[in-house]
Amino acid sequence: MRPPWKLQSSTFGGSSKVLVRFEEDLVLLKPPGSRDGDGDGDDGDDGDDGDDGDDGDGAAPWGEDREGTGPLPAPGGDIPPPSVSSLAGVAISTYAKYCYNKLQKAALTGAKKGLKKPNIEEIRHAKNAVFSPSMFGSSLQDIVAMQKERYPERQLPWVQTRLSEEVLALNGDQTEGIFRVPGDIDEVNALKLQVDQWKIPTGLEDPHVPASLLKLWYRELEEPLIPHDFYERCISHYENAEAAVAVVHALPRINRMVLCYLIRFLQVFVQPANVAVTKMDVNNLAMVMAPNCLRCRSDDPRVIFENTRKEMSFIRVLIQHLDTSFMEGVL
Question: What is the DSSP string of 219-257?
Fold first, then answer.
């Protein structure tokens, strides 16, 4: 395995200089007595005070310690690796493995944001995710792997089942506009932080808060709940109940389980007694949930508009016709 640092030798105007690249820090080093290549015949100190060759760019002179990395070798000698102390206890391989996995996924699925640059908050979130992976924005496989130690027997993501249970515990099935009315943004963000620490606070009162966060979790999955490979089949069979159900059963196991749990959950809300209060019938539920399950990859507004209607119809057909009785008691 190549070290996470690199030493390069170059010759400029007859003088030998060395570039050490480490943690995005380029260090210019010169052997003692070398010329600086400007043709004036001095010792490389740019005439400042006759020192040992430090040209004022902040680089340590040859052979001296730089920020705890240890003495540098003479030209041609073995190159020692930088000390762990300069990494503040974090191995660069940690970053490398994380980035490598992300690049592999991006190569297969494409960038989630296309050519749009990430904002500061997204960069900060990505940096933290290296050490504390979030349950939001990860793949279903990664989320299940995260909870394996805490909940080895669970078949479904803890975040999905707990937020769903919380919505019902707060009488979400008897709350007007559930899943349509957004929860308070500050409360939703606060709950998100708690959930990422495997906690559900006991003081929640508004069912719109866990409902909004639940929708966000589905929407931010690294790959949509119904993978891209199945998208065309979904919009082709958006009115055919038998074919739509067949698509569900063809999904990868974890996607199938999570989707069936979601549909069973939504089937609670379409009961006539609940619809009379929530005003969220099967059409309204399909409208708000379809974008969280299916993602159109086209940039053509006409295609997006046409497919939106088909996506909604597909989810509506599943709510009405998918048999989810086998999910009873499954967590």
Answer: HT-SS-SS-GGGHHHHHHSTT-HHHHHHHHHHS-HHHHH
